[in-house]
Design goal:
Length: 127
Amino acid sequence: MDSDGELRVGSVERQRALDLLADHFEAGRLDSHEYEDRRGRAGDAVTRGELDAVFTDLPGLEQRETDVAPAPGTGAGSPATTDRGKRKALVMGLAPFVALAGFFLTGTWLWFLLIPAAGVVMRYLDD
């Protein structure tokens, strides 16, 4: 590869970019139309260059570039974080099915409260 701009980005980098855009929007640097446009471009980004283009006129780009793409083996791309994310996705993916099975077995709708409860528990366990 000739430059970092040609490197492909993954969902973690795109999500961090979306979070950073939300910070800029909350700080008043972007209006709602520009924020939505940049969110779409960041969500559709395939390469690092496409993702960086979303932040060219926003302050703190140098720091945000290192935040968006962590070094291999560190940060959000580390195996421990990836495993935790997989477990979280598994629990959240199974929660609706467990709730549905509980509903059919017991006949009470209260099982469906398991879905948001699982989300809250997973959120606090993630911190």
